[in-house]
Amino acid sequence: MTSTTQTFKHFRQFNGQQPPTWLGSHSSLTASDAARHFPGDSLQNKLVRQLGSQRLLPIKEMLECGELFERVRHKLRSPIVADLCSGHGLLGILFAIFERRVERVLLIDRRRPASYLKLIDCAVRVAPWIETKVTFREQRIDRAGLSLPEGTSIVSAHACGSLTDRCLDLAIAARGAVAVMPCCYPKRACPAPRSLQKALGLATAFDIARTYRLEAAGYTTHWATIPAVITPMHRILVARPGNTGASPSKNDDHGIPEGRQLSKTM
Ligand SMILES: C[S@@+](CC[C@H](N)C(=O)[O-])C[C@H]1O[C@@H](n2cnc3c(N)ncnc32)[C@H](O)[C@@H]1O
User: Beta partners for 82?
Assistant: First the structure.
């Protein structure tokens, strides 16, 4: 049986079948891949076919962004969304395309990659309403001077190491909702006690410390995961301002994969 945490929510065509290994592939998606695996008239499939026609993005990154977006979009809807360490910016662009309540998307990265301009061009072709919504800012997020308007929602996929913590700092400062999918976990920066690091593994202990930090800052937190077949770095921490004490919905992916633990060494 497919466990909840392995379910595809943005690209549902991959449910109920043995996932092909290329779902986690670093190769660029080609036009023929896109035509074969992303048929039909849904907006997400049309976008993927556009991206495939340009061989713009690795398959893995495209699926990561789609599945992360689908798990957090309802918790992060706000007039301004910032995608930090955005790289090409696909994650933020999905908010511009699919969330009507999002009026402005800021993509922030220390460097604007060449793929961004092609990507935004593809996205505008399938969703012309985003043309004036998306701005790319070349800026470091670990330097003083970056502040975001109050209530900005922050999203970030694989901001390396402590940059994920910087995303949390910026969200707390703006009192905005936040969703991060961390990647590498630097041992020296882990605030969790060594006992937890040893017992639970560095990654889990680090994310528990992050979760306590958000709760202490007045946030309600939630863990989720995207399918591990896409990436082993698949845990998402989501937090919204306000300690509601609400119990998790039965549809939530709780981030504790059934029969599959996140690696202790991540
Ligand atoms: C692993 S990539 C993730 C890119 C994208 N979010 C994704 O999921 O494909 C990390 C990104 O962080 C950016 N980055 C690294 N240090 C940064 C900093 N100090 N401030 C802003 N961006 C930074 C890099 O340029 C790179 O695009």
Answer: 106, 154
- The model's pLDDT over 139-182, given as tens digits with 9 standing for 90+, comes to 999 987 888 999 999 999 999 999 999 999 999 999 999 999 99
Domain count, the chain: 1
> Does the beta carbon of 199 sit less than 6 angstroms from any atom of ligand 1?
no
Beta carbons of 123 and 130 less than 8 angstroms apart: yes
Three-point CA angle 127, 22, 76, nearest 5°: 40
Q: How far is the CA of 108 from the centre of ligand 1 (A)?
A: 9
Instruction: Report the interhelical angle of 43-54 vs 59-76 (nearest 10°).
Output: 150
Say if pTM beats, i.e. exceeds, 0.85: yes
Return d(Cα 156, Cα 1) in angstroms, integer. 31
Residue 49 lies in a domain: no
Nearest ligand 1 atom, CA 143? 19
Q: Are 154 and 84 in contact (CB under 8 A)?
A: yes
Q: What is the CATH number of the domain that holds 204?
A: 3.40.50.150
Q: What angle do CA 149, 102, 213 make, to 5 degrees?
A: 50
- The predicted-structure confidence for 106-136, as pLDDT tens digits, reads as follows 999 999 999 999 999 999 999 999 999 999 9
Alpha carbon 23 to its chain centroid, in Å, reads 16
